[in-house]
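This section describes the prediction task in plain terms. A model, or a person checking by hand, is given the sequence of a single protein chain and must write out its three-dimensional structure as a string of tokens. No templates, partner chains or ligands are provided. The sample shown here is typical of the held-out split.
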Amino acid sequence: MNRERTLGVLAVAVLLFGAALVVAAPGALAEKSDTSVRPTHLDLREPRVSAGEVGGETAELSLDLRLAHRGGPAENVTVEVQAIDTDTGLVATTVRKRLGRIPATSAGPGRESREVRTRVNVSVKRQGGYRLDIRVYENDSRVATGRTTVRGVESLVPDYADTPVEFHRFGERETSLPVISYSIQDTGNNRTTLETQTFLTNRGDEPAGDLTLVVKARQVESNVVADEATVQVGEIRSGRTSAQTATLTVPADYNYYLDAILLRDDVVVGTATSSATLDPTRPVPENETTEEVEFNAGDFASSPTPEPERADAGAEPPATVTSSGPGFGIVVGLAALLALTAVLTRRRNA
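The expected answer:
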């Protein structure tokens, strides 16, 4: 009897505890079932675009997309990005990324929403600008949209040409140092030897190098390259400047443009031009003009060209030989004389 009474008391206690739990926390027993029926909401926040891999013809636009999700689980979620050329209005490319199922958010104050982050890469031609339309689908139904625009895609530097090393510029004033300076090392035999100097600065955060510097001397009026030199550029530490020198030998008494070309793996990554005035009476023009100047191409030939032999000034010119055919000058003269005599005789007889 005591045993039955004890079991009855325990049963009543369990029932009372369950009732108290339902009253105190009504959502505790229903939370699991409620999450499966709660509506889901997806909102697209403002997208961010950065440059991905950049090639010579194409550029990758990397979109950082963030979805604000709240409520129950979102099933079969897909993000679509469409790139539209802003000049032509034509669709350049469309990319879709499947996110799948997004679990339900936790119920309770402060836990009503979560941020879902994903990245979508879109490859386009490296030119012009693009409008990027973003659409979010749940079970093939559009639930959110967004849009952003990028311009000047052609200004993105290809990865193979990207280097933090560049020519150091001293300013745009007339008194500023030129990008390429020079000094005269030697003269003679109608030749002038120049030592050029230019400064390269590494503006990156890491050491950089493995570059090639080509320096050319280009005659101003003719654009003929008189000489060129190649310099291998070693490693330049971050934030440091390195001086590079090259020696050129050019014909004297001409003016030149000094062209410096910086290459990385046979790709031009920078250029600079200054002037070298070896004929001060004819300054290097800032603007292109047309003017006749004395220019001897032989001064720029790789080897002297022999001139043709000329006759001595005092030598007599060779005799000129002429020929003529048989003539009738004497016979005609005698005939005319006889005719005149006959006429005079007739007049006298008359």
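For orientation: DSSP finds three helices and 16 strands in the chain.
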